[in-house]
Amino acid sequence: MAPSPSRALQSDADPWADTRGMIGAPGGVINIAHEAVDRHVENGHGADQALRFLGKNGSRQVFTYSDLSEASAKFANILVSHGLEPGDAVFSLLGRGPDVYIAALGTLKAGLVFTPLFSAFGPEPIRTRMEIGNAKVLITTLQLYRRKIAKWRSEIPTLKLVLITGDVAPDDCLSLDQQMAGSSSKFTTARTGPEDPALVHFTSGTTGKPKGVVHVHNAVLYHGFSGKVALDLTPGTIFWCTADPGWVTGTSYGIIAPLVNRVTIIVDEAEFDLDRWYGIVENEQVEVWYSAPTAIRLMMRAGAEAAKPYDLSSLRFLASVGEPLNPEAVTWSEEVFGQPFHDNWWQSETGGIMIANCPGAQVKPGSMGKPMPGIQAGIMEHEGDRLRELADGEIGELALKPGWPSMMRAYLHEQARYDKCFKDGWYLSGDLTTRDQDGYFWFVGRADDLIKTSGHLVGPFEVESALLEHEAVAEAGVIGLPDETAGEIVKAYVTLNPGFTPDEDLERDIRGHTRKRLGPAVAPREVIFRNTLPKTRSGKIMRRLLKARELGLPEGDISTLETDET
């Protein structure tokens, strides 16, 4: 799983020197769990609040850094007592609750590899990922086990241990509560090295099986650095990352980055409810809020009036991730919160934020921002067997110079697929972007989403942003469909805000708005109304799925799809 020498950290000037000096033990030993929790306890901050869990039923549970240290040590001891060894794979299938945080830290502390899964996955996506990842351990709930695991559990030959949260477990499983009660709160953290595997995150492929993205313990350097620089995380900050822990953001910036920076993390067990969310910001005095464009659009849909009953003055920094943030959402947040949501860009493969609108920087609505310190980004075009770097204003594939600590080290069992991500000394992201003369990057679309119509290259994000400017449109997804004359035509799918009725007049009005805004060559030829659009659990609208359904093509991997109504 180790990278080739050319892809290891290779900068003479170390932009992460401050973080490197802050963490890590002598002799090249580095362990994410130690840097996130035990280091703070050793330095006299064990009584600081680490986590505040807000239950769906109104319960509230607080964990200090000492509490987390002891609980994760107990979990690590459970793993070791059952014969698990460094490098073995531990999977979690849990919602937002204390157990997933303890399991993640305990797994890393024991030198094992942690893989979180969405609790909303169906049986087959869970099984596929566990097979690819050679799962040795699964931690889940009794309900999820009975519904999604029990029928095929014996068919995963590598699976040795299933831990069930609570004090009741089937005969072929163990109760986590009972195991924790008999486990010691003392544990000597594994002496993991910088390149030892720590995390595997599965990301959907457009076709075929999902990809298992491997990250190492050295990633903690960049987690800590980027949390501080891009999200303004400082000791004592009250921070709320709304991402599910089954998604890479929920691990990198919901667990690791904030704990490394010794903040207090808010975790809400419940699903999105606007009044509940605004109430949490007010009651918990949230200072930094990291959410997704889908949630922000739901806030917009409810209107500014919905926020007025709440005191949201504690907020000092707002950030967004998951898909590009439309310009109107940035403008709206300035009006409602007195400050913009700051968009940033990264991928499961990058392991951390690469391009960001950082605190204190000017925000250009609709822009991803600028590369983080130490990150070299370029806009590339494939020219035969080589890459050619494009000038400002040109559209090409976003590429990054390899070498940052949280860069993926492998796709599980897919070396050729991994190698294809690198060319001529660059990591190729697959995202099309452009860069303006001020150095700001602007998202255009995935390379395979780009629409070629009547000689024009159309990025779906540009069209979707124009659609969202119409007062009736809540969400939009845009695709290109084959056309004998134009090559492709632009087709849009939208959901509506409350108070609007889908009819021909509204469809004509929306198309007319986009024609005025974008011109007839770029505007959609047709607008289709939907109750919902297919989205991943992380909030990204799945354009490829819209296109596959339209053309009757294979849908590919849809394991991360939310239930959608078409």
Automatic annotation (TrEMBL):
Entry keywords, A to Z: Acetylation, ATP-binding, Ligase, Nucleotide-binding
InterPro entries for this protein: AMP-bd_C, AMP-bd_C_sf, AMP-binding_CS, AMP-dep_synth/lig_dom, ANL_N_sf
Natural source organism: Ruegeria profundi
Domain AMP-binding enzyme C-terminal, first and last residues per copy: 462-540
EC number(s) per entry: 6.2.1.1
Cellular component GO terms held in the UniProt record: cytosol
Superkingdom of the source species: Bacteria
Record-linked NCBIfam families: PRK04319.1 (NF003313)
Ranges of residues in domain AMP-dependent synthetase/ligase: 45-412
Name of this chain's protein: acetate--CoA ligase
Pfam families: AMP-binding (PF00501), AMP-binding_C (PF13193)
GO-annotated molecular function: acetate-CoA ligase activity; ATP binding
GO biological process: acetyl-CoA biosynthetic process
PROSITE patterns in alphabetical order: AMP_BINDING (PS00455)
